[in-house]
Amino acid sequence: MAERKIFAGPKVRRIRNGLGLTQSAMAEELGISPSYLNLIERNQRPLTVQLLLKLSSVYKVDLEELRDESGGSLNQLREIFADPLLAGELPGDQELVEVAEAAPNAASGIIKLYRAYREQAARLSDLTSLTAGAGQMPLAGARLPADEVRDVLERRSAYFPELEDAAEAFSARFAETRDLPTTFKEWLRAERGISVRVLPVHVMPGLRRRFDRHSMRLFVSERLSPADQAHEIAIEVATLALRDAILAELDGLALSTPEAKRIARFELCRHGALALAMPYAPFLAAAQGSRYDVDTLRSRFGVSYAQAATRLVMLQRPGASGIPFFMIEIDAAGHRLRRAGAQGFPHSRFGGSCPKLNIHAAFLQPGQILAETVEMPDGASYLTVSRTLEGPNVAFCERVRRTALLIGCEAAAGEASVYGQVATAQRPVAIGPACRLCERRGCLARAEPPVTRPLGLDEMVAGLSSFDFQ
Predict the structure, then answer these.
(1) Which run of H or E residues covers position 285?
(2) Residue extent(s) of CATH 1.10.260.40 domains in the chain
(3) Alpha-helix residue ranges (DSSP H) falling in 327-373
(4) Mind listing the pLDDT tens digit for each residue in 266-325?
(5) 371 vs 192: CA distance, rounded Å
(6) Which of 256, 343, 434, 435 has the fewest beta carbons closer than 10 A?
(7) pLDDT tens across 162-180, in order?
(8) Domain with CATH 1.10.10.2910 in the chain
(9) What letter does residue 322 receive in the DSSP assignment?
């Protein structure tokens, strides 16, 4: 059998130094010459299988430790030097291998320092969030274009005046029409020569909508519900009919990169589609007449729950506004998918990350509307209305994409809605901002200790929370 050659000189030297042996003494016990051992320790000679067995029998060395060329720290070092702060420092992995092999204690120190750096960066971010004003965003490092667009849109009102005016002017041409999807299809065909076709899943398995410029056809997936199919058609109409208004609103967002502007243009097209399907004045009148009942509104305008709820957040025209709702959508893992607010989402007062919010409980009751009043530590109270949303239709054995949407407003304003009556009859739920920023004691839902308080490490006392603090 061919011998496997393993170069592990630094490890052999550590073993020898740990035992307090000279090279001559170790060489004698291994049955080799001191000069040969010296070459092994300098990685100029390999460890043969026979020598590995000798090391194991004489010094009780774990053979797996010697066979491991990089040690357990190499992957962690790779992760550290993949950080944007250090990404350009090393041309390859060879130096990391040498550090992990020749100086494992130094490698361990680097790993500990990097962990401490990340922890301090997280704490600084949390503290910045805590001290930020109601209309401010926390300080951040380099941002992706999508992050920049999301931050800009979340800081401002969801009402876009030029876009709304253009959508109303366009919709006025079809004021007597009840079947807007059919009207939009006819407009695309007559004005732009575009035909609309719904394709089966196997033809377009991974897309919601696709426009073929060559054949001038708009394809929509049959995975979507009728309301979502109509929304995709409305997006195409908004892209073409509201182009000037969209570009004007885009210029006002002051985005820094072409990619960010491209992403924001898509978002404005989606806003425009909602404005076309639910024209401002008729929708505001219907909202006020129904006391902001989302189910009534979606039935009346032929849209989905998510579309009607999102449209409520956009009703902030000066002199003709609705309840100043804000909105947040998350997935089952708690990831924030989108957030918007009438005057910018109140970040510092209502972080949206408290596990006691009913948006998290909504996943336990799919399709049910949950309404309640919540109270922050500073006494501010809000009406919150949450419900799950179903994604595109799925085939057998596919997992349903389910998210949850919360719309809310200050409790006093919420009394004008149908949900306010139910919520005010119940005791407010005591919530807080993100756990790292919340100082409520005895919270059964706490997931992390507050960054603003030291942990209460008293072995004689155990609180209700998993994280006791002073």
Answers:
(1) helix 280-289
(2) 9-104
(3) 358-361
(4) 999 999 999 999 999 999 999 999 999 999 999 999 999 999 999 999 999 999 999 999
(5) 44
(6) 256
(7) 999 999 999 888 877 778 8
(8) 143-276
(9) -
Residue 33 CA to residue 22 CA, distance in Å, equals 12
Instruction: State the amino acid at position 300 in one-letter form.
Output: R
3 state SS of 198? strand
Reduce the DSSP state of residue 388 to 3 states and report it: strand
Query: What amino acid occupies position 229?
Result: Q
Quote the crossing angle between the two packed helices 258-277 and 145-155, to the nearest 10°.
Answer: 50
Tell me the fold of 9-104: 434 Repressor (Amino-terminal Domain) (1.10.260)
| DSSP letters for 210-269 | EEETTTTEEEEETTS-HHHHHHHHHHHHHHHHTHHHHHHHHHTT--SSHHHHHHHHHHHH
Residues 306-330 as b/e (b if ≥16 CB within 10 A, e otherwise) read: bbbbbbbbbbbbeeeebbbbbbbbb
Evaluate whether 250 touches 227 at the Cβ level (below 8 Å).
no
- Give the Cα separation of 218 and 229 in Å (integer): 11
Q: Rounded distance, CA 438 to CA 451, Å?
A: 8
Place of tokens 């119940």: 426
